Each structure stands twice: as structure tokens, then as C-alpha cells.
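Handout, section 4.2: multi-component inputs.
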Amino acid sequence: MLLPRLLFATLFLSLFKYIFHVFLAGVLGILDYSKVLDPLTIVAFIFAYIVFYVIWSLIYFMYHYLDRYNTSLKYEAHKNEVELNKLKSQLNPHFIFNALNSIRALVDENPSKSKEAITLLSSILRSSLVMNKNKLTDFDEELQAVTDYLDLESIRFEKRLQTEYLIDPGSSGYHVPPLMIQTLVENGIKHGIANLKMGGKLSIKTLVEDPYMIVQIRNEGQVDNSKFSQSNKGFGIDNTIQRLKLIYGERAYFKILNENDHTVLAEIKIPKLI
Amino acid sequence: MKALIIDDERLARKELFSLLSDFPEIEIIGEAENADEAYELILEQKPELLFLDIQMPGKNGFELLEMLDAVPEVIFTTAYDEYALKAFDINALGYLLKPIRKDKLDESVKKVLRLQNKKQLPDSISTQKLGLNEQVFVKDGDKCWFVKLVDVRLFESDGNYIKVYFDQYKPMIHKSLNALDKKLDERAFFRASRKHIINLSWIDSIETWFNGGLLVKLKGGEKIEVSRRQASKFKELMSL
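Output:
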């Protein structure tokens, strides 16, 4: 497809260049009439031009072809990596086995609570299987998954975990990347509250500023900023940034910071439409 | 056998406690929910066995062991911790994955009891010093060892660290040689010089050296100079 067009273009350009050459020589008065109509001269000149143009085109197309091939490969690899990390980050084995261990102890201590815990765990497993398949999920559905998760962690951490929900009613109309909020909540527990002997509070707050929604997750603890500057960025954090970028481009953001000397704030801003 | 359960989650402690009720050989003398609490209890109650969770708020299980001079037998309990368990590949210690399987618990407990029976009466209890039967916990970077003092040939000071020579390893621990010297049983270990403490049972040969010093060759191949000041003490000790 490309090749005949390319050959035609080079032939045309060569002819054009020859004619232009003759015209220019005529204007300057250095035209040698005996050579202009000599077929050998014509063929030789045009052939030389064709060779020149073909080589130039080959280099041009080669360069762009390789460049595009490279970028698309990089993009694909990047996308796959983000997807893979998303999968890996969602079924946290440490959480699941600890939860099962707590449930085992509850069977003797409080049978009805242990039943409830089993239901919560199955909901969590189900949502991580189902929600993985979609690019976006309803905010309400995500909030349900987060609530289930926190309810189960409350059974395990007992008094050491308090939760608070401050949800803007307008949040219902929004969509979020599945389990993104849950991953951040899990991080808040794993790196924050689980490391505190007395435990602490985890709060989830949403603010709707049409057409954007801001989700804030606060937990007691401190983030070590020096850790983020290195290559071993928190798995969840790096992955969250990449996922937002893939879905929304520059219109969404994620940040995590020490709000004060005992609270960590993780915040995402998401637009209503993709 | 006196045992201590250390885990930050009440339900996890309760579960292990109920599993252990089927083992009359194991007497649970206490529970701790963090490393500092456990440290106090260990000094106070001197348990012979620890069931130790690795991930805890504050100091983790490894940090607790590093705080102790002599460590009892340890069975680690963890839900899932690839990183921590990798550290133990080389000396295959007992660990249990939560939720704990009864048969695995049975295996671990039996192994510990067998070890306990092999031990002679620990002489350290009377002297309050670290004898050859004691074990220490050594962590160097990602790797960890429980090392019986009987296997340690040599302690060598290196800046603020001590190199512990045993088998083919010589990991570093962050302690001072002087402090260690005071704690070691003087019948088993000898301060050869400012930089070295040797295990007397590992001595292969002794030669006289310059200035009235001695050169001690250990069975591991290390050659240690005994300073003149220590040499007379050493001769006295060896002639007994």
C-alpha cells in the first residue's frame, strides 16, 4: 500500500526536480540544449534523483516506524504492569489469613459474631473478584466494600480501630476505579494504625465540588516522606497514581502527606466523567 | 515447659491458648501484646519457650529477640510474611502459619521438647551468666540465626559491632565487647585481648608468641593473639 505510493511520489518528485532544474538553467542562461533532450542524460538524472528520494524516504519512514513501535510497546508494558499490580494489591494475604485466624477464635467466644465475620469476608472476596473486571465502579458499591473491610478489621483489631464516615450525599453519582479507596484504607491500617500500640481512628470523607469529587482518608500515624523519594515507593501509592493517570489523564490527582504530627491524609480527586 | 504467648491481637492469643490446652507439657505462664511488655515478662518469668508474632506495633518480633541477651526457644507465628520467613531458610526454624494447624503445632512442640530433653541442666540459672547451653539471636541484614553459644568460636570487636564466628558465618551484632564479656560465663569464654573473646572448647593449639604473649589457634582456623597481660591469666586458667 505504502510502497507504490512511495515509488510514484519519488518518480513524480524526480521528474519535477528535473524540469525545475532545466527551467532554472534556462533562466540563468547556462542551459546546454544538446544535453537537455538527450535521453541518456534525462534517464541518468532522474534515476539519480529517485535513488536519493527513496533513500531519504526509507530513513524517514524507518525512523517514525521504530519510534511509534517503541512508544506503543512501552505503553502496553506499562499498562500491563499497572493492571498486574492492581491485581496483586487487591488480595492481601496477610489480611485474609489474619481475618480467618480471628474468626477461628470467635467461633468459641461469640458464634453469632463469627458468622457475621464469615459473611463479611466472603463479601470482600467476592467484590475483589467481581470488581477487578471493571474499569470503573459506582461509588456506593466501593463504599460498601470499604465498609465490609473495615468492619472485619474492627473485629480483628477490636478497640484499637475506630472508624468514621463523612460521606457527601452527592458522591452517589460518581464512579471510581474499583477498590482504589479500599487499597488506600488498607494502607492506612497496615502502615498507620496497625503500628500503633494504642491504635487509632481511620476516617473517610468525601466532598463533591461538581464536576469533581474529593475523597479524603485520614488515619493516625505518620508517613515517612524519605521513603517515597526512593525507588521503593509504597506499592499502593505508586499504583494509585498510575491508575488515575491511565483512566483520567491529568484531570485526577492523588496525594499523601502528614496533615499534622499525628495524622496522615491521603486524598484523591476524581472527575465525574472520563 | 514454661511458655509465653506474644501477639498484638487478643483473638490470636486466645486461639493459640485454646490450641495449646491440648498440650499438658506446655504451661502458659503469660501473654504479652507488644515487645516491651514481653521483654519485662521474659526477664521476670524466664520462660523456656516463646510463641512469637513477627508483626507487632512498636517493636517487631525480631527486635524483641535482639534486645535479649540469651533467648529461649522460639516458635514464630505469622499470618503471611514472605520477607520474614525468607530470613530463616538457612537454619530452618520453627514457625507456624496462622490460622494454625493442630498437626503443625504438634510437630513444633515435639521438636522443642526433644531439644529441651537433650540439654543438660542449664548451669546459667545459678550463675546468671551466659553458658554454653544458651542461645543468642543474631540478625545481620536480612538474615537471622539462633546460635548456640557452644557453636560460637570467637567474638571479635569491629568498631561498634561484634563479629560472631560460628559455622561458616560471621555476622555482625550491634553490641559492645566489654558488655558482652561481663555477661559470658568465664569458665567457657576467655577475653584474649582488647578485640577478642574466644570459646575455650574451640582451642586447637597454643604457641608462645612475642613479648610473652601467646598465639591460640582455633579449630575453625582463626589465629588469635593473647596479649601478655592476659597470657598469665590464661595459663592459670588452662592449668586448672
